[in-house]
Write a structure and sequence with these properties.
CATH architecture of the largest domain: 3-Layer(aba) Sandwich
CATH superfamily of the largest domain: Alkaline Phosphatase, subunit A
Order of helices and strands: HHEHEHHEEEEEEHHEHEHHEEHHEEEHEH
Bound molecules: calcium ion
Number of strands: 16
Helix content: 10-25%
Low-confidence stretches: 1-57, 545-553
Number of domains: 2
């Protein structure tokens, strides 16, 4: 492997062929198919080799700050929705003006946990045990310790890695052998003073500060590394009721996360500035997800209600992190990505917002949880002054799963066969080596709704294997089936971005072709070139039964 991997210096000057399979996937497919499956031992050798790479002198590796908003709709960002967006987002607009906007970026799922799994592992979450819905605050870890994550990869290349914010990928919490204390619910069966395992610090992050899952899921308490920071002694309720730290208040969480992220940048700026120890910050904000709790300072600012105020506050939190980078003198060689894990939630009060002229999905159909575009086409703004021209735009199809392969290319590494199975580097699009969507950086993208309904997107076509929204918007699947709507939906997004005209009957060959591609991706255990891999569980492409209601958001 080492012969194929470029050194960490001046990788920009090297021919694309040296940069690994994701860059020119078609050409390298044959080579990769013949490649060697990475065993555990090979992975260790790979880790040792990566760690021994010298730090770059001529071209220091960029810092990487990945900011993930929670349930921020495509149309909630003012500059992405100039006609039908009414919420001021000056910080996001400024970042977009100074960098590149991706107009066709997708979370692999229209809900939290599976999207986050994809971001950190570069693999579709429907290959795991989680076939629908999301985890809760007490769920077991979804990412096994041996799996390569973005944080592990970057740590091996000398990065200092931090996870700040909402985890929502499961934590192993120790249980009290005697069960919950008398008179207390099952939520108290855990030893909250004990060590948490299988979380961020077990998966490549040097430091974690945040919460277990969504802000409306207990335990309501901050965690630093593998411990709760304050004993859990009381119960509180935001949607769900459960154990909490006495001083924990939902309204404080967003400002706390922004300030912890800014502190991390300031604390390690000196090392990062020299390129000796670049930073990777994965900042998973808890907003504007429920509970919708703008602070006093932001309440009433938008004139459009609490949700819009909370979006403004979320925008401000992003601004604080960007300011911290600028104060630290790191802005030029820092790759900042701001995106969202899925579309706007109906909890935002969409009908009321629309009455006031604000459309959280812009021209797209559907919202969070749905298989339609509004569920998973997300804002994706990238600023990197050193390499990416201000005011640029890419219409390339990209997926949040692509972070892993992109980071691998950034540091000049090559992913082993059993990692990033569904991750393609978007660096060629970012650096405008491959600006033309007719030459895609990824072949297709598979999308998944809260109920585990599939869609597959390639070029202008998207095929959804369900009769309705696949999620919460009407018509839901049961209702659509009762109405006699076709069991599959095919849309031409170039002509019909609002997904109003189902063309499945008119183009049966496209339906067949897309379904076959999806079947192949499922069967191969991967959608990238490389040695076939196993899914963790059998994967059912077309769910025969009516989906069970899923409570988790
Ligand atoms: Ca979310």
């Amino acid at each position: 492997m080492s012969a194929a991997r470029p050194s960490n210096t001046a990788i920009w000057l090297r021919p694309q062929a040296a940069l690994g399979r994701h860059v020119i996937m078609k050409t390298l497919q044959a080579i990769c198919v013949a490649g060697v499956l990475m065993t555990g031992a090979a992975l260790s050798a790979y880790a040792a080799h990566a760690a021994s790479q010298p730090a770059g002198q001529e071209q220091p590796k960029p810092n990487i700050v990945f900011i993930l908003a929670d349930d921020l709709g495509y149309g909630d960002v003012q500059c992405l929705n100039p006609q039908r967006g009414k919420i001021p987002t000056p910080n996001l607009d400024r970042l977009a003006a100074a960098g590149m906007v991706f107009t066709d970026a997708h979370s692999a799922s229209s809900v939290c946990t599976p999207t986050r799994y994809g971001i950190l592992t570069g693999r579709y979450c429907w290959r795991t045990r989680l076939q629908s819905g999301v985890l809760t605050g007490e769920s077991k870890p979804l990412i096994p310790p041996q799996r390569l994550t973005v944080a592990k990869l970057l740590a091996r290349h000398g990065y200092r890695t931090a996870c700040v914010g909402k985890w929502h990928l499961g934590l192993e919490m120790p249980e009290l052998p005697e069960g919950p204390p008398a008179g207390r619910s099952q939520a108290w069966r855990f030893d909250y003073a004990g060590q948490l395992r299988g979380g961020p610090t077990a998966l490549g992050f040097d430091w974690f500060f945040g919460i277990s899952a969504s802000l409306d899921m207990w335990p309501f308490a901050f965690i630093e590394n593998d411990r709760f920071t304050v004993p859990l002694t009381v119960e509180k309720q935001w949607l769900r009721r459960g154990p909490a730290a006495a001083d924990f208040e939902a309204v404080d969480v967003l400002p706390t996360l922004a300030s912890k992220a800014a502190d991390f940048i300031a604390r390690h700026a000196a090392d990062a500035a020299t390129g000796r120890r670049p930073l990777f910050l994965y900042l998973a904000l808890t907003a504007p997800h429920t509970p919708i709790v703008p602070s006093q300072q932001w309440r009433g600012r938008s004139g459009l209600g609490d949700y819009a105020d909370f979006v403004m506050q979320t925008d401000d939190a992003v601004g604080q992190v960007v300011t911290a980078l600028e104060k630290a003198g790191l802005e030029r060689n820092t790759l900042v990505i701001v995106t969202s894990d899925n579309g706007c939630s109906p909890a935002a009060g969409i009908e009321q917002l629309e009455k006031l002229g604000h459309y959280p999905s812009g021209p797209l159909r559907g919202y969070k949880a749905d298989i339609w575009e509004g569920g998973h086409r997300v804002p994706f703004i990238v600023r990197w002054p050193e390499r990416v021209p201000a005011g640029s735009r890419s219409n390339q199809l990209v997926c949040l799963n692509d972070l892993l392969a992109t980071c691998a290319e950034l540091v000049g590494d090559k992913l082993p066969d059993d990692a990033g199975e569904d991750s393609f580097s978007f660096l060629p699009a970012l650096l405008q080596r491959q600006p033309d969507p007719a030459r895609p950086v990824r072949e297709a993208v598979v999308l998944h709704s809260i109920h585990g309904r599939f869609a597959i997107r390639q070029g202008k076509w998207v095929l959804a294997l369900c009769p309705g929204s696949g999620g919460w918007s009407r018509p839901r699947d049961e209702e659509a089936a009762k109405k006699g709507l076709p069991p599959v939906q095919l849309y031409d997004l170039e002509a019909d971005i609002g997904q109003q005209h189902n063309l499945a009957d008119k183009h049966p060959q496209v339906v067949t072709q897309l379904r076959s591609l999806l079947e192949k991706y499922v069967a191969d255990g991967r959608s990238t070139p490389g040695k076939p891999q196993r899914n963790d569980v059998p994967v059912e492409i077309e769910k025969a039964n009516a989906p069970k209601p899923v409570g988790g958001r």
